[in-house]
Amino acid sequence: MPLSLRRGRVTAVVERRQGLARVEVDGEACVAYPRLTGPVALGDEVIVNVQARELGLGSGGFDVLYANLTRGLDLPGEAAAHVMKLPYAPLQYAAAHAEEATDASATTLGGTPVVACSLHSQLAPVCAGLAGRRVAYVQVPGGALPLDLSDTVRVLRERGLIDRTIAAGACFGGDAETVSLYSALTAARAGRADVIVCAIGPGVVGTGTPFGHGGMAAADVVAAATALGGAPVLAVRVSEVDPRPRHRGVSHHAQAVLDLWGGCCSVAWPAGCPIDEPVGASVKRIDVFGWRDACAGLPLASMGRGPDDDAWFFAAAFAAGRLAHSLAG
C-alpha cells in the first residue's frame, strides 16, 4: 500500500515535549518529531501521513507529520554523523551512533541483568521494581520506533527510575543510537548500568501467528543477553481478563519466547498469582507485596486496562524488576 499523505495546516499546538510535539492539522490530532522535520508552529503548511488514523489503529490512530513546508526545509544535518536511521526510506537521516565512540567498545555484559519485555506497558512496573538501581533502557523494534513518543519513558526519567536511554537498530531518539541490539547492550554496560531493561516502543504488531508479533523482540533480547554473558530475565505477559484467548493466562507472546529460549532466562513469577505458571522455564517466585505503592504515580495502562482491571499483568512485570534488582547485587 502506498503512503497516504495529505497537505494541511497546523490549526493548534496542543503540547511540546523534548523531541515531540502534539498538534492538530486541520483539526485532526497529529504527532510531530521536530528532530526529524524541524520546529512546528501554528499556521505552518505541512504534509501529514494519515494512514494509521484511516485504518483505525488503536495505538497509532493519529496523523504523523511527514514534512513541514513552512520551516522544515533546508535543515542542517547532524555534524559528523554518517550512519543512517530509517535507511533508504523517505525519512532517512544520518545520526551519530555509539559505535563511532568508545562507549560501545565493550564485548561482554559480565553478568549484568537484562530484563526482556514484550510490551511497552511492562516498562513502568519493571522499573518500579528496580528503584535504587542505575537503569539503562534500550528500545528495540517491534512497536513504535521513536523513543520520544513514550510518555512512560519521560515520567520514569523524571522519577529517576531510568538513567539513560538507548535506541537500538531502527529505533531512534535515545541518549545514544546503536546499529544493533548487541552493541546497545554493551553500550549500556559500558555506561555502568546496574540493570538493562529492553522493551518495544508503544504499540505492538500482532498477527495471531506463533512468531508474527512484536513480542518476539523479547526473544531477541534473551538471545543477545545470553550470548554476551548477561543474566536475562523475562517479564511475562499475563492476564486474567483479556478477551482474546491467546492472551489470557500466560500470553502466547511470552510462551513463544519461552519455547525458543526458556532454558536461557529466568522467569519472574509473582507469588500468589492464580494463573498457571509458564512451562519450559526456570520460574522464580517473587514476593510482590507493596507493588501498587511502588508504582504509585506511574503510567499504568495496557490495552486500555489499568491495575484495578488486570492486576497480575502489572504485578508480574514488577516481579521481573525485583528479580533483576536482586541479581544486580
Could you please describe the fold and organization of this structure?
By secondary structure, this protein is α/β, with parallel strands linked by helices. The chain has 2 domains: 5-68, OB fold (Dihydrolipoamide Acetyltransferase, E2P) (Beta Barrel); 101-327, Rossmann fold. Helix content is 23%, strand content 25%. It contains 9 helices and 17 strands. The strands form 4 sheets. Strands 11-10-9-12-8-13-16-17 form an 8-stranded parallel sheet, with helices on both faces. Strand 9 (135-140), helix 4 (151-158) and strand 10 (164-168) form a beta-alpha-beta unit. Helix 3 crosses helix 9 and helix 6 runs parallel beside helix 7. The termini are far apart.
Which terms would index this structure?
329 residues; alpha/beta; OB fold (Dihydrolipoamide Acetyltransferase, E2P); Rossmann fold; 17 strands; globular
Quick overview of this protein structure:
The chain has 329 residues and is an alpha/beta fold. 23% of the residues lie in helices and 25% in strands.
Tell me the layout of helices and strands.
Elements: E1 5-17, E2 20-25, E3 28-32, H1 34-37, E4 45-49, H2 51-55, E5 63-68, E6 83-85, E7 93-95, E8 113-116, H3 123-129, E9 135-140, H4 151-158, E10 164-168, E11 176-178, H5 181-190, E12 195-200, H6 217-227, E13 231-234, E14 238-239, E15 249-250, H7 252-261, E16 266-270, E17 282-286, H8 291-294, H9 311-327
Parallel strand pairs: 3-5, 8-12, 8-13, 9-10, 9-12, 10-11, 13-16, 16-17
Antiparallel strand pairs: 1-2, 1-4, 2-3, 4-5, 6-7, 14-15
Helix pairs in contact: 3-9, 6-7
